[in-house]
Amino acid sequence: MGQLFQFLYYYRAFFLFLGLELLSFWLLIRTNPYHSSAYFHSSNTISGTIFQTKSDIHSYFELKEVNKNLAEDNAGLRELISRKDQPVLYSVQQDSAKIPDIAYAYDYIAARVINNSTRNIHNFLTINKGKKHGIEPGMGVISNQGVVGKVMSVSNNFATIASLLNTEMYVSSSMKSNGTFCTTNWNGSDPLTSGLLYVPRHLQLFANDSIVTSGFNSVFPPDLLIGTIKSFEIESNATFYKVDIKLANDFYAMSYVYVINNPHREEQSIIEQEITGDE
Prior knowledge:
There is one protein chain. By secondary structure, the chain is an alpha+beta fold. The chain folds into 2 domains: 2-53; 106-264, Beta Barrel (Thrombin, subunit H), CATH 2.40.10.340. It contains 5 helices and 12 strands. It has helices spanning 2-10, 12-31, 33-60, 63-85, 265-278; strands at 107-116, 122-127, 140-142, 147-154, 159-166, 170-175, 181-185, 193-197, 210-213, 225-233, 242-247, 256-261. The strands form 2 sheets. Strands 1-2-5-4-3-12 form a 6-stranded antiparallel barrel. Helix 2 (12-31) crosses helix 3. It is globular, with a radius of gyration of 24 Å. Mean pLDDT is 78; it is low at 85-102.
């Protein structure tokens, strides 16, 4: 132990210099947007390559389960296609004013999860698709089970996603049973459970009621499953319920996701920002 202290004392000037260099580098990245962007872009590429290699080895031993999931997906897609091809018959003449507009189509980019965190208050996933595959920051991400999160950072071959297990992630939501609008936001504790905000007290709530996306933004289409009501309570003088929902996705076992490309996302975001800027 004495030799260790002698070594540290002998090279104290070097260690002091190294510490100051690291502190300066950290302050430069934290306070300079250009350097911060360049650093995260480079680190995202390097870490993405490492995670890709690690994921390739791990995924080899999960091929059986992956094939099972793909078969289930194909079965569901075939069912949707068969329903789409069935003719729609009306027994009475419909009022054209009551027929809803046909929503524009979304594109979906399949990607494999190569890194995933669940133990922090700001959790992220890394996927093996990036800018050259058409992925951009702000795109929504889902899985077969439901909503996953939103793309935050993109390099040429990789992308980082803020998952629902991120306290800064808010998703415009609605209750499937009555259409009431609310907001999903994780409270930072249980990775299987999220909070549901702004549910007014006059509503009658039911356990297992589905919570879906509202479609009131350019990130997610409407009616994508987020979770189901797990528990709820309200204080005597409170305006809103305290609601917990069981998330549809198990973020401990996240293998493949789909990035949503809304062809009108940029146009919708611009016009909404103009309205917000005028307030």
